[in-house]
Protein 1
Amino acid sequence: MSTPQQPSRWLVVGAGGMLGRDLVEVLSADPAIADPAIRVEQRTRAELDITDPAAVSAAVAGCDVVVNAAAWTDVDGAETAEPAATAVNGTGVRNLAAACAGTGSRLLHLSTDYVFHGDGTLPYREDAPTDPINAYGRSKLAGERAVAELLPEHGYTVRTAWLYGEHGANFVATMLKLAAQRDTLDVVEDQHGQPTWSYALAQQLRELGLAALAGTAPAGVYHGTASGSTTWFGLARASYELAGLDPERIRPTDSTAFVRPAPRPGYSVLGHDRWAAAGLKPLPHWRESLDEALRRPAFAALARAAHSPQSPG
């Protein structure tokens, strides 16, 4: 896709996180974006408190596209601190949406599969009824509603799930680290979802932002998850297999073995029909992306360490 004809300015909010760092890399280095007419700015959590309306307005001023990757992400912690989680995931997003409404900026806001109940058997459509089962999901739904209310023409909510990448704690990295420490691992097989590589999602967000600027992407909800689906058990086995480790070291169990403060959806598979309306393809199959991700330096280093575990002491 070609770059916009008019100079544009992109702002990545939450640029210090796993997805945020990939976004900055994609927007800054990709040949389709690396153009003097396009400027990429970034704000980490320390640099921009999205619960501060004045600070948000100042940061958004002059921007054409704002990508919000900032969020309260402690799912279990939200159970006992729901007001604090909602201040970031709800009120903070409302501040961003209000600022974008005032300037005419396009807002690409990251949300989650947790807005759904998770008891389905078919992929959730973008317009499926929401019904979160935990505080984190409720806080994220508040943000979605703010975008829909304040930016009916320029607001884009992109739900993602089961995110992993090079820059931060995530399931794939944890599995590879534990491979160097344990002979076997028990992983749940009764939760279904779509493992999504943060770098691939960053590329998709770039394309959506360009389509939004070009006027070819309708505002509303999109599902930014990988194609296909699996379980945590399936993802762990695939990670081992693609890293050259024995997948039989991964053993199946169920969620009762890992009780958490916040209930988790059992079925988090999302449908991708709406990308066609924007003239874009959905993200690649999760296994294809995982194979590519494991070739990146950080994951490759973890795989090498797993093949040469250190002796205790």
Protein 2
Amino acid sequence: AKENGVKVQVLDEKALVKGGYGGIMGVGKGSENPPRLVKLSYTHAKAEKTLAFVGKGITYDSGGISLKPAGHNETMKCDMAGAAAVFAAVVAAAKLGLQVNVTGWLALAENMPSGSATKPGDVLRMYSGKTVEVLNTDAEGRLVLGDALTRASEEAPDAIVDVATLTGAMVLALGDRTFGIMANDDAFRTSIHEIAEEVGESSWPMPLPEDLRKTMDSPTADIANMGVRMGGGLVAGLFLQEFVGEGITWAHLDIAGPAFHEGAPYGYTPKGGTGSAVRTLVRLAERTATGDLG
């Protein structure tokens, strides 16, 4: 970061507790490796716009107390792919010297079961002040992202894009090579879809149906971290939308399918981590810098 002019701020577990980051702490407290929120900042003296990128960085996802079944754990080191994409995109923007300010937020935690782990039925108070009933500890990415989205919103960027290996439901919907795009602004969602196509990343626009929101109603908290199973990827997007600051343009990229490739290499896609969404984020930054968002 230093060699590329990117500033780094790391909030450790003490700062997270003091700051009230109940989502990130709630997910990470079951691990002996404590969680972090990392802020990356690239600024340009002539920049007129600011983008905030938020990445899910679950360094390993066991599912927590809601333990994943056998056969679903082996590749869960990939659950930090969203944060990795955000990190790479901020550094790339700096290396390219783009005339735009780019801030990256890496919400980092290891989701593990232990005597100190969050339990199903627990209620967490998020950084925003909203309370969340945790019905399933394996729906943890939305908890760390919720805190990071609220924090990113405080700086009033022109747009926020979060990137996450968020739901198996999105893989069922779109397969292994296509990520889903949800947004609170139709034009912005369309722009990101066009940008992804332009840079060779397969994506597809997805809706945020309002009727699914009520399925996350909770008798003990402002919202539950789970809703109906059908349309689970959209439910997750609706959850995240609750933590975006009012009036801020936001998009959510669910890269659960294309982030990690288990088969043989094809094209320029290697076996293992693919870097999904990096090119889309960098192109978005380039377009924002030139004022060309269509």
